[in-house]
Design brief:
By secondary structure, chain A is of the alpha/beta class. Chain A folds into two domains: 7-102, Elongation Factor Tu (Ef-tu), domain 3 (Beta Barrel); 114-266, 3-Layer(aba) Sandwich (Rossmann fold), CATH 3.40.50. Helices cover 17% and strands 33% of the residues of chain A. Chain A contains six helices and 16 strands. Chain A has a seven-stranded antiparallel beta sheet. Chain A has a seven-stranded mixed beta sheet with strand order 11-10-9-8-12-13-16, with helices on both faces. Chain A has a two-stranded antiparallel ribbon with strand order 14-15. In chain A, strand 1 (7-20) and strand 2 form a beta hairpin. Chain A starts with 6 loop residues before the first strand and ends in a 12-residue tail after the last strand. The relative contact order of chain A is 0.15. The mean pLDDT of chain A is 95. In chain B, strands 3-4-7-8-9-10-15-16 form an eight-stranded parallel barrel, surrounded by six helices. A four-stranded antiparallel beta sheet of chain B has the order 5-6-14-11, with no helix packed on it. Chain B is globular. The model of chain B is unreliable at 321-325 (pLDDT under 50). The chains are: A alpha/beta (270), B alpha/beta (325). At the A-B interface, strand 14 of A face strand 5, strand 6 and helix 7 of B.
């Protein structure tokens, strides 16, 4: 399923920057021969000692590029628990135990307009997808970005204002409310049958999937969950599928999944 | 110091192994899933995910939760069923120089016997582990190792169906694991795998619900290691049988504890999730320890515990206990 087999590496922290309190932009260096990481794929990082936290933490990449002496990965995260709190202490030169690349990427539909729908930190893989789409001169790439506050809209400088629509729940930037509500005020963005590429929290993705269904649009969502392993071993990240008794294993069959396949009513937090 | 590399080979529960490190059931898939990261030929063997006769979708999410130095799981024995296992999964291990122990499950003794009989003619299956100790399925009786009589029923029914070594995997969620172990051995089990997970629970304070959809799950990881060790110790002291020890083993040092206690082999489980190549490093670490301490063979280490002082040890074997009262 994967284009590349995952491997274990010791990455090196090139830099880490706190963009606003509790939110970090992390740049890691890998060997030059590191396999391609594609938008939607993720890295699974050890964040602590042997025992705590026990499990790796998965992160979709915001950016991936090659330099003569390194493959460079950028990640963006917020401190939400023990693992990310440990990560926040990482300094330049620190080694990071990394398993990857893992998971299924977004499948770009070349001849259709693209609407990237980001919820909070979920913008991470979409910023990377956006950059590649623009480079490949994908027709009509639009970016709808919703977050709780203005400060949580990260990476805006990488987006072209012309195709950008922003919403914040506190009204500190753009539309006041969710980005899904906001899109109701941009009917022209949905009228030319774009493909939706979405990433964010589960409820946000469920709302995006509903929007796609209402407008009869194809929609790929990148799910987030607690992963035990990232390799399909533990069977912990089960996603209920519409009309099927079998569950999809998000860590290897996702995180990017066709929204129409998911039985949203049986999801955990919807 | 010996000049040659130490001999790591052991025979555990009638199964000869090149070294005493196996991947535990449910943590290495059906074996081949690990191969991009772990060279299976560097370890003694893999125990497969538990196979049932039929396909099982497993439990609804949430299925796992992280805990201090551990994790809870409530996977619910998701699996492809015996037919797909034999036609799709097991052939991927053909020609791989490692042992394959097939874990089987069922709702009653006859289910186990049917699967064991089927596997008896399958050359790639080197031994059978009876999973009579999963806490995560709602059908009654899947935690048969909480009762000596139920455990005995399974082993008794399975034993005549196969010539392959049979290990019974026991739950720690009992007062005296050796009572259950004895029942299994009396019916012809070749080895005891111990322990399966401990029953545990976590509450999601934000939602005021249990984190796991089934409410409870099995606790594994380093948090349970001392409990696992004392359960193995009890089995070894009381029954003097072949014990395949497991529970929170993540390093060579952890594995050494179980071997010194007397376990013939160890299984590495949850540690594989975060450290998928650790079983190989654990096998290497055992070899290094033997070299460092001047032992030629791992069999010299097994049960080689210094008890020359007055240790307060318990429990005693049934005979000794009888003599004391």
């Amino acid at each position: 399923m994967n284009e590349t087999e995952p491997r274990l590496d010791r990455a090196r922290v090139r830099s880490q920057r706190e963009t606003h309190p509790g939110f970090f932009w992390l740049t890691l260096e890998f060997p030059p021969d590191y396999p391609d990481i594609l938008p939607g794929q993720y890295l699974n990082l050890r964040t602590g000692s042997l025992n705590d936290p026990l499990l790796r933490r998965p992160f979709g990449v915001v950016e991936f590029y090659r330099e003569p002496k390194a493959s460079v990965v950028e990640l963006y995260y917020g401190v939400v628990g023990l693992g990310t709190a440990r990560m926040a202490t990482w300094r330049e030169g620190d080694g990071v135990d990394c398993l990857g690349p893992l998971g299924q990427r977004y499948t770009v539909v070349p001849d259709r307009p693209a609407l990237l729908v980001a919820g909070g930190r979920g913008a991470a893989p979409l910023l990377y997808l956006y950059r590649l789409m623009r480079e490949r001169q994908h027709k009509a790439v639009r970016f709808a970005f919703g977050a709780r506050t203005k400060e949580m809209l990260f990476g805006l400088e990488r987006l072209d204002e012309a195709g950008l629509y922003v919403a914040t729940e506190d009204g500190s930037a753009g539309y006041r409310g969710t980005i899904i509500e906001a899109l109701a005020h941009r009917p022209e963005w949905l009228r030319d049958k774009p493909v939706l590429y979405a990433c964010g929290p589960e409820r946000f993705l469920a709302a995006t999937a509903r929007l796609a269904a209402e407008h009869d649009l194809d929609c790929q969502v990148s799910l987030e969950a607690v992963y035990g392993c990232g390799l399909g071993l533990c069977r912990g990240c089960a996603v209920p599928l519409r009309g099927e008794s079998r569950y999809l294993m998000q860590c290897i069959e996702g995180p990017v999944v066709d929204a129409a396949r998911i039985d949203w009513a049986r999801m955990e937090h919807v | 110091m010996s000049e040659r590399a130490p001999d790591l080979s052991v025979t555990a529960g009638k199964l000869p192994l090149k070294n005493p490190v196996l991947v535990a059931s449910g943590t290495g898939g059906y074996g081949a899933e690990l191969t991009p990261i772990l060279d299976l030929t560097t370890i003694g063997g893999v125990v497969t995910k538990t196979i049932f006769q039929e396909v099982r979708p497993g439990n609804p999410p949430q299925r796992i939760a992280e805990t201090p130095a551990g994790m809870l799981n409530s996977i619910g024995l998701e699996g492809v069923g015996i037919e797909r296992f034999l036609s799709e999964k097991l052939p991927k291990l053909e020609g791989v120089d490692t042992r394959v122990v097939v874990s089987i499950g069922g709702y009653g003794p006859e289910d186990f016997a049917r699967l064991a009989e089927r596997l008896d003619g399958v050359s790639r299956c080197d031994a059978i582990e009876l999973n009579i100790s999963c806490p995560n399925v709602k059908e009654g009786g899947l935690d048969m190792s909480t009762h000596p009589r139920l455990a005995a029923d399974v082993v008794r029914t399975v034993r005549p169906t196969t010539k392959k070594p049979v290990w019974a995997k026991l739950t720690p969620n009992v007062t005296r694991i050796s009572d259950v172990g004895k029942a299994c051995l009396d019916e012809g089990a070749d080895g005891i795998s111990a322990i399966n997970t401990l029953l545990g629970m976590q509450i999601d304070v934000a939602h005021r619900t249990p984190t796991l959809r089934r409410g409870v799950g099995g606790l594994s990881g380093p948090a349970i290691r001392p409990i696992a060790l004392v359960k193995c110790w009890e089995l070894l002291q009381v029954l003097r049988c072949d014990v395949i020890g497991m529970g929170g083993i993540a390093t060579a040092n952890d594995a050494l504890e179980f071997l010194i206690a007397g376990c013939k082999a160890v299984q590495v489980g949850t540690a594989v999730y975060s450290d998928p190549d650790c079983p190989a490093r654990i096998a290497e670490g055992i070899a290094e320890y033997l070299e460092r301490t001047g032992m030629d063979r791992v069999s010299d280490l097994i049960g080689n515990i210094n008890l020359d002082r007055e240790w307060l040890l318990g429990p005693k074997s049934a005979d000794e206990e009888g003599g004391q009262s």
